[in-house]
């Protein structure tokens, strides 16, 4: 039995369908993020779980009890709001004790639990201050404590970290994880920031345009994105246009120009790729999986292979010129103008190239994901990009 | 508008060079214009010879003593208070309701409500005063006291609403959501979260309403019959028919009341927020 | 259709269950998971209020009516209807309930005396408005652009507005009368006395004095909202301070100017206190004529007719101002 069960959740605002038939489960003790661009409906989902929006259709069950229709103050969930919504007229301790007061917890117990919470979020001695006197990070902690102290079944987060600078945000991320484990509480976190979501979550729900794109662990989403959207949204991706020339249970043969490459259907990806012969497809590969070698080096003879990549045992390859380079700590990110597929990016650890160097670019067919392009049912898609 | 044009225009250059000094001159001159008459008034309340002698031969508290033993003036103050206090209470309640309704709800006539609550500022006082005396006294036959209190409420509602509405609008509704999320129902949320946060604005609106009502003249002058005059009407009669230096003393009392009320109101809100309306 | 303007109310409005309510001593009275239909299961004042909240939560129309209704009703009955009643009375002869007639209007509009008074009133109002707008704008501009302690200065400007109108007039009587403060000071420095009281100048000074603080508010507000970068951009692009003012600052604050002009012109046009106290017998304004009808001539319908004439002038001016873009009715400033 899942702690939170969402089924067929739909929310319409007039003609606008903000959330469309969304369903997912959250298990007890999980840290789940709903990730999506702004306007994807992720906050609406959260607000329906909290009780601030009534679904047009669908079910939300908490601990197997249907909660749609009950007001927010009767739901066993608490929220950390985007702007935190700390009560400015109350002290930090009064803010934290507010929920306990509403449920009739006696004053001394309230004080004790508030004190314990302040310790948990490392704000001992801050109880008598006003929220306005605290820094952004400290206010985040108060908001978190205010939700956690009620020991709700589920804590909701509406992008509370988005206002913090990068460094503080990363610190708060690890604090969130620590506190989630220490309190053994279930967290549902909404954000548009894939970096945050990847860092903190056990599982992710990717939402776009009101619809679920994929649900899975961070690894699943990164290594086997279910759609071009997910691939783009979670990490960077290179896309090469192609056309399917043959397809069976074992492999998908893709023509990316002059050549054909057989992409294996493995467990990690493409196993479920829904493509047919003659479909226009995107062949996607992560920058870190792209190999770059100097075209003038010992492997120069490979450059001839590049014009005939199909023989390189299931690899994609071409030649190109380095156009840009940016350092990213231990790696370098290169922008390479390829002869065949336009501009690609490659993340390279050891080798070092300069702008204008001629290079060969290659990657394994086993590393790519093939997605049918939208509207590709009609064969004559424009060949742009 | 070449660069050469620009640097050779003497007026532009002069203005650019002396803008700050010109601004200071304007501020000092206008503030002097605004405050000197008030200073004169206060000063003259201590003049022994009264209004007609400047500079006075001697400073004295004589007129203050005369004022304190003048039953008519003191009665006028009491009369004013018996009108202003209830009028202020009613105004605060109604203005808060207007602010809440306009801020929270969309309903038919919402724009009309806003217009109606602003209009008394715009319609010339003498026109509204005439309309009121015709309708209250002529048509409805309301008792004097009731007419005057209603007139004061109409007079003060626009100003109180002007102050209270922004405090509702700037109130973060997210706090109410947070409160409900933490288990408080609508009423508890209003009592524990909304009210404490809008309270300063409501009190400020009340203080300004009281000040305005305490000073109200035109409506009162038209609507009120021949009974006990309010303080402003009393002063009007004094000035028009028999000027005595005692009026200076009453003026100082007035000023004291008004200034302390407004300062209290300002300390509760922010004056530039009121202005920004 | 009354709808909550924001969505959270919408969510709450449909829920029926009233679970808990805090009673006076801070303890919670649990009503379990049952439906507390009208708060019957909780006790005490809070309980009843909670019951009422629940009752109203289910009836948004009633809730809106309960809150907007009373002030709405009061303003309609005691403000809007009296103005309409005045219109009716203005068509009656001699007294309320008199025979229907147009005579009040024809008498007024064909009388050279009254029309001269209206014209005089108009001229004085225009002069006052021009003076107040110029001085008030210069003041607001100086405060916003060049002063550090803006809040204090603004406070010093508007404080006099909250003192009694009559007392502010009385202060000027002290100053302007023959042998008053002004004349005495002039005497001390060897200049001739002016005896300004009971002249047009006195009336202008008086009006300027009372309306200046009022007009500064909208000027100040619009200047504060003006992005200072725009002024610097204009100067950077080669316009001097005067041209910048005329081509950037003034056009961008025109709403505030129009609002200030309306706030000054309208009450001046209807005023009777200032001309009565500071003006002489040659300085009659239309407001004084109305006052006379009610305080000495006792021809109420005639006074009502003049009131209507003033109102027409005012409404015409307001429409003009709205056309020019005054934000006078932009109250609320919220999406609807």
From TrEMBL, chain A:
It catalyses: tungstate(in) + ATP + H2O = tungstate(out) + ADP + phosphate + H(+). It is an enzyme of class 7 (translocase). The keyword Cell membrane applies. Residues 4-234 form the ABC transporter domain. Its EC number is 7.3.2.6. It is a peripheral membrane protein. Residues 295-314 are annotated as: Disordered. Its main location: membrane. It is found in: Cell membrane. One of its GO terms (molecular function) is ATP hydrolysis activity. Keywords: ATP-binding, Cell inner membrane, Cell membrane, Membrane, Molybdenum, Nucleotide-binding, Translocase, Transport. It holds the Pfam family ABC_tran. The complex is composed of two ATP-binding proteins (WtpC), two transmembrane proteins (WtpB) and a solute-binding protein (WtpA). Belongs to the ABC transporter superfamily. Sulfate/tungstate importer (TC 3.A.1.6) family. This is Molybdate/tungstate import ATP-binding protein WtpC. It comes from Halorubrum aquaticum.
UniProtKB/TrEMBL annotation, chain B:
Coiled coil: none annotated. GO terms for cellular component: plasma membrane. InterPro entries: MetI-like, MetI-like_sf. Pfam families: BPD_transp_1 (PF00528). It comes from the Archaea. It is found in: Cell inner membrane; Cell membrane. Signal peptide: none annotated. The chain crosses the membrane at residues 23-47, 76-100, 112-136, 148-171, 198-222, 249-268. It is a multi-pass membrane protein. Residues 77-265 form the ABC transmembrane type-1 domain. Keywords: Cell inner membrane, Cell membrane, Membrane, Transmembrane, Transmembrane helix, Transport. Belongs to the binding-protein-dependent transport system permease family. This is Spermidine/putrescine transport system permease protein. It comes from Halorubrum aquaticum.
TrEMBL record, chain C:
Gene3D superfamilies: MetI-like. SUPFAM superfamilies: MetI-like. InterPro entries: MetI-like (IPR000515), MetI-like_sf (IPR035906). Residues 1-44 are annotated as: Disordered. This is Spermidine/putrescine transport system permease protein. Keywords: Cell membrane, Membrane, Transmembrane, Transmembrane helix, Transport. It comes from the Archaea. Residues 118-321 form the ABC transmembrane type-1 domain. GO terms for cellular component: plasma membrane. It is a multi-pass membrane protein. Belongs to the binding-protein-dependent transport system permease family. CysTW subfamily. It is found in: Cell membrane. The keyword GTP-binding does not apply. The chain crosses the membrane at residues 72-93, 113-140, 152-173, 193-223, 244-266, 298-320.
